[in-house]
Write a structure and sequence with these properties.
The chain has 242 residues and is an alpha/beta fold. Helix content is 47%, strand content 14%. It contains eight helices and eight strands. Strands 1-2-6 form a three-stranded parallel β-sheet, sandwiched between helices. It is globular and about 55 Å long. The model has no long low-confidence stretch (mean pLDDT 96).
Length: 242
């Protein structure tokens, strides 16, 4: 947990102090994980008013960083906004993340790995849409406000993995079950109504299947970018039984 504390808590403090000293407009990129998780059968989604209920060392330090930003805005007048986004996918994502890990395993002749029972739900958004959401908030957002960025992309992990296997011409059951992650959240879901109605933002990558196919092609065509990190990443996961 210590790197999360150093980066998310102390690191945010240092950045806020620098922004205060030099009067810099500050935008803080956070995560939907600060809200904890939702039941699989719960129709609700996270909104800007959802109470914080983090369940891991990572998400608790991200929640802490959000609170620091709010305090520095109110106390010192930092010109700040916050965004909380759902799970990203797309080009240039590190191979330790769920979608690129599955893709690169198949490309390397390895079986993909699936945590727990595969029913955990994530709300997927293409990295391009996340970027345009952040830019919209940075240029149009009201100071001191929080905006949630999401593209209504809820899918459980086993569905995403089977989609990847299908696109890459693999058998739908050609994967290994591995030990679940500690404190694995069940479901994330983002309601981005505030961002859409107040600032006029909307996602452009609304066809997940098409975005996934483009992502698979990118990793297939750019092995030189991800291969140097692949072996070390898999060794770390193997040590954790994952």
């Amino acid at each position: 947990p210590e790197p999360f504390l150093k980066t998310n808590v102390e690191g945010t403090f240092r950045l806020l102090e620098a922004a205060r000293k030099y009067d810099v407009r500050y935008h803080h990129v956070s995560t939907d994980e600060v809200y904890g998780d939702l039941a699989l059968d719960d129709p609700a989604k996270f909104t800007e008013r959802t109470p914080y209920h983090p369940s891991s060392p990572y998400s608790s330090t991200k929640a802490s960083s959000d609170l620091l930003v709010r305090a520095w805005h109110r106390t010192f007048g930092i010109r700040a906004t916050i965004s909380n986004c759902s799970n990203n996918y797309g080009p240039y994502q590190h191979v330790e993340k769920f979608i690129p890990r599955q893709i690169t395993n198949i490309l390397e002749g390895l079986k993909p790995k699936l945590y727990g029972n595969g029913e955990n739900v994530r709300d997927w958004i293409h990295t391009d849409d996340h970027s345009t959401g952040v830019w919209t908030i940075l240029t149009k957002g009201r100071l001191g406000e929080t905006y949630l960025i999401g593209a209504n992309g809820e899918r459980n992990n086993i569905t995403v993995l089977k989609d990847i296997l299908a696109v890459m011409g693999q058998d739908p059951d050609a994967f290994d079950w591995v030990k679940d992650r500690p404190g694995h959240d069940r479901r994330y879901a983002i309601d981005s109504t505030k961002l859409r109605t107040e600032l006029g933002w909307k996602p452009t990558h609304t066809d997940f299947q098409k975005g996934l196919e483009q992502t698979i092609k990118w990793y297939t065509d750019n092995r030189a970018w991800w291969e140097p990190a692949k072996a070390a990443t898999e060794a770390k996961y193997k040590q954790q039984g994952q």
